[in-house]
Amino acid sequence: MKLLALDTTEDSCSVALCVDDEMRWRFQIAPRQHSELILPMMESLLAEAQLSVQQLDALAFSRGPGSFTGIRIATGVAQGVALGAGLPVVPVSTLTALAQAAFRKQGATRVLSALDARMNEVYWAWCECRDGVMRVSASGEQVGAADTVTAEDDEKAWGVGSGWFAYADALEQATGIAPSRVLPEQRVHARDVASLGLAALAAGKTLPPEEALPVYIRDNVAAKPIKKTPLAG
């Protein structure tokens, strides 16, 4: 399978390309430069692999929650490129991608992902790993004050994401997760978006690009129509 994944959720910008069992990526900390960097990064990876976008099987993207501007950029680019190339898309939860990073780095199988949502709140979700793939638990994705996060009894749980950097004390008290089992500086990375996208693609869980929308969680932020974005092939 050939899949291209992208993320512009936080202050970082990343793209990953998976061709069968080989993964390659680009990652850069670049606040407010996502729209300038994302297409050149995609084109660079495809050129390196000697592929055109039309040769891909699907495009995965981080659909949120996160920065409103960032997830709109990711959604717009993914939709536009996929429409132009006739590809399906795989929307991937940013919170699940963070949990996938904890599994990749620490073998974590229970993770509380938390992103700093500003206004003294966090986007959060409990995630669990099955067959190497992280999934959001039944409690779903939520937003709220760090001290209102619901604890789930699991002494082996890990915490990951910028929410743990901003509200460590409140989250530790709410969840019981020890500081030694927290990855507060882990950002969403396209390589983890790609891993989750591949699992969804293998399971036939793709969408036509026009049906893929950003997920904000917070307060009814309306999605606008997406313009077609060409990518050189």
Describe what this molecule looks like in 3D:
Keywords: Cytoplasm, Hydrolase, Protease, tRNA processing. It holds the Pfam family TsaD. The chain has 233 residues and is α/β, with parallel strands linked by helices. It folds into two domains: 2-93 and 188-211, ATPase, nucleotide binding domain (Nucleotidyltransferase, domain 5), CATH 3.30.420.40; 94-183, ATPase, nucleotide binding domain (Nucleotidyltransferase, domain 5). 31% of the residues lie in helices and 27% in strands. The protein has six helices and eleven strands. The strands form two sheets. Strands 6, 7, 8, 9, 10 and 11 form a six-stranded mixed β-sheet that branches. A five-stranded mixed β-sheet has the order 3-2-1-4-5, sandwiched between helices. Helix 3 (94-106) crosses helix 6 (190-202). The two termini are 18 Å apart.
Key descriptive features of the protein:
single chain; 233 residues; alpha/beta; Nucleotidyltransferase, domain 5; 2 domains; six-stranded mixed beta sheet; five-stranded mixed beta sheet; 11 strands; 27% strand; globular
